[in-house]
Amino acid sequence: MQDRCNIGLEIKHFTPGSQPKEVETLGVHRDDHYLFFILRNGSASLMVDFNEVHFAESSLYYLLPGQVHQPTRYNMGDGWFVAVDAPLIPPDYRMVFEGQLRLQQLYQLNPQQLEECHNVLTLLENKYNSNEDDAFYLPVIHSLLQSFLGMVATCYCNAIHGSRQLLRPAQLSQQFKKLLTENMRTLKSPSGYAIKLNVSESYLNEALKKTTGLSVSYWIMQEVVLEAKRLLYYSELNTKQIAHNLGYDDHTYFSRLFKRVAGSTPLEFRRHYRK
């Protein structure tokens, strides 16, 4: 992000016949910032962490920093692309965006939501493209950005939890997800996460099974193997280097673990997805 702009934000409105530079020039990659997409009409597909995501009209979607992605089909009629540096996203919003253990889902905007997002983004783009020497240029841009981010966070928060305050198991699942993302290279025991969350291991397991249907151990291994897949796909690191990167001194043990979770060896996975 810092290589392309100095205000932590990029925004582009696409109209029929136009196409973003990312689609034209970038293949498989990962970014250090958030990406938000709104598709008013047309269609598109993205490969996100080895899952195909299909966009339809009136859809909203976002990508987290670090997620490996690549456009696989693109026929956008009208839509928006917004890139945002992570420090510009308030912690409460980040909890919504980053707190889900499963891959984030498309959100179908209703006509009012779509129009509201479009209006705010139109104002944001107009200001973004105005004279940077204008008084309060940056504060106004960031204020408009916060309005958009709040609207997106509200959509996802309501979709997942309704308008009610989060129940304790859902809150705990979100807290676990944040800790897991930050600590999965050094902490791999369910008891370790339970200690950090000030709950018993059995209660943490119960909360995750209630909200996701799966155990703490399952999600730890899924996070580790997902990051391994990203490195196998995106980087040129060998299996030993990846194992060490993820906190495993014994790369043969790591390879066995990867095969058990992913169904193939690391090298088989790399050959399959790079062919």
Automatic annotation (TrEMBL):
Keywords, in A-Z order: DNA-binding, Transcription, Transcription regulation
Keyword Transcription regulation: yes
UniProt cross-references to SMART domains, sorted A to Z: HTH_ARAC
Keyword Hydrolase set for record: no
InterPro entries in alphabetical order: Homeodomain-like_sf (IPR009057), HTH-like (IPR037923), HTH_AraC (IPR018060), Tscrpt_reg_AraC-type_HTH (IPR020449)
SUPFAM superfamilies, sorted: Homeodomain-like, Regulatory protein AraC
Superkingdom of source: Bacteria
One Pfam family here: HTH_18
Domain spans labelled HTH araC/xylS-type: 174-272
GO molecular function, a single term: DNA-binding transcription factor activity
Stored Gene3D superfamilies: Homeodomain-like
PANTHER family hit by this protein: ARAC-FAMILY TRANSCRIPTIONAL REGULATOR, TRANSCRIPTIONAL REGULATORY PROTEIN
Annotated protein name in UniProt: HTH araC/xylS-type domain-containing protein
Organism: Mucilaginibacter pedocola
